[in-house]
Design brief:
about 425 residues; alpha+beta; six-stranded mixed beta sheet; five-stranded mixed beta sheet; 15 helices
Length: about 425
């Protein structure tokens, strides 16, 4: 059976939890609502709130990005806040033409950074495209709805757009969000994409064991979306038709979830949403399922050079999971500061300088096989560190668990991959 892709409502729960943790509501219950166009909503009325907090979650992981353009879905969500062809363009026909030639010039410049003609063409068409655009216009219309704090961010494997509004403005905001979905101009895409590449480069540089994790994925999940998630795209601009297809597949009503928390009347809100979210022109997309990774017959080891301190990383393939909360609890149980089971065991054997980190699921993917990763750094030496780490985790799965442990301890199989660094 191919791996089952997780329903977007699974990460909507994480989105709602984050909003509640921020103190935006004291929601006792959530009511699901399906709009006529297939858009899914989770509604949480809270009469004690002073505003309505609205969030839109869409997939933003490597499984939903085109190969070689990892990060494109997130780039497009940020770019979407610069408006649509209806709201944000002084002359949509001429701006579309300028953008087309601008993208073509960017492609030539990125292929050959010394192409002076391409450099001049980028400057010329960029200036014209900017003259024809009024990028802040969409934000101004949102503000007059009224709504405020419009922003985009990444939350795990999801891209999230958030704003706050009033109960009387829900209908107006809904119409603007539909316009953003149906008529996105993908304005200033080249610069937004270059910023994505820069952010990815900085994030990679800041992660000391990234090369080790990449080796784990190569050992345990070769050829999967997880393997692509560890790579950084090259300095090339995604063609506009590829960007448009990515936008359609990640913003289609069946791929997104809206969460509304705050002071609103449930019946009035459902009626307003039904009036706005009626149809979509975005084509439905069906992506082939990722082939399931081959089961590991035993431990695979690989040395990785270049880390600052001797360390090992051990990983177990995880099936697609729906319960991220239970998995997070299992990680905390293994390595919750000095009190984690694995941390205590390793420090008893190797001293207080031993540091343990557990990450799962890694990489962050929606409904795809990923890894539970255990990283152990011992500044003194790495001798026996892999065997000691794996043995302790095996012990954790076999030991007599207390009732409190039993629900959170991970059911780790004994087949795994290990990458051992060479300091």
């Amino acid at each position: 059976m191919p791996p089952r892709r997780r329903d977007p409502s699974a990460f909507a729960g994480c989105l709602m939890a984050a909003m509640l943790a921020a103190g935006t509501a004291d929601a006792q219950q959530t009511i699901p609502f399906l709009a006529p166009d297939g858009t899914r909503f989770l509604l949480a009325p809270d009469p004690t709130a002073v505003a309505v907090h609205w969030a839109i979650a869409s997939p933003g992981d490597a499984a939903h990005d085109p190969a070689g353009n990892e990060g494109l879905a997130a780039t497009l969500v940020r770019s979407s806040l610069l408006g649509t062809w209806r709201t944000g363009s002084r002359d949509a026909v001429r701006e579309r033409e300028a953008v087309m030639w601008l993208d073509e010039a960017w492609q030539r410049m990125l292929r050959d950074t010394g192409d002076t003609v391409a450099i001049e063409d980028v400057k010329r068409w960029d200036e014209q495209a900017r003259e024809l655009a009024d990028a802040p216009a969409f934000a101004r219309r949102v503000a007059t709805a009224p709504a405020w704090r419009l922003q985009a961010q990444e939350l795990g494997a999801a891209n999230v757009v958030t704003l706050a509004t009033t109960r009387t403005a829900i209908g107006a905001v809904a119409s603007l969000l539909v316009e953003r979905r149906e008529d996105c101009a993908m304005r200033d895409l080249p610069r937004a994409w270059l910023r994505t590449l820069q952010d990815q480069t900085r994030a990679n540089a800041a992660e000391p064991l990234r090369a080790v994790r990449a080796e784990l994925v190569a050992l345990a999940l070769p050829g999967t979306d997880a393997a692509r998630a560890t790579s950084t795209p090259g300095p090339r601009l995604p063609p506009r038709d590829v960007a448009a297809a990515t936008w359609a597949s990640t913003q289609h009503p069946t791929a997104t979830v809206h969460v509304l928390i705050g002071d609103f009347d449930l019946d009035e809100t459902r009626a307003a949403l039904a009036r706005a979210f009626t149809t979509t022109q975005l084509p439905p997309t069906t992506r082939p399922a990722t082939p399931a990774p081959q089961p590991l017959a035993g431990m695979r080891r690989s040395p990785v050079r270049g880390t600052a301190s001797p360390a090992v990383a051990v990983a177990w393939p995880l099936p697609p999971l729906d319960d991220d909360a239970a998995l997070s609890a299992a990680c905390a149980w293994l390595a919750d500061g000095p009190n984690g089971f694995l941390t205590r065991r390793l420090r008893q054997a190797r001293g207080d300088g031993c540091r343990v980190n557990v990450a799962a699921p890694w990489p962050a993917l929606v409904g795809e096989p990923t890894l539970l990763v255990v990283e152990v750094v011992d500044p003194r030496n790495r001798t026996g560190l892999v065997d000691r780490t794996t043995q302790n985790i095996h012990d954790a799965t076999k030991r007599g668990l207390t009732d409190g442990d039993r629900d959170t301890a991970p059911g780790i199989v004994h087949r795994h991959a290990a990458a051992q660094t060479v300091g």
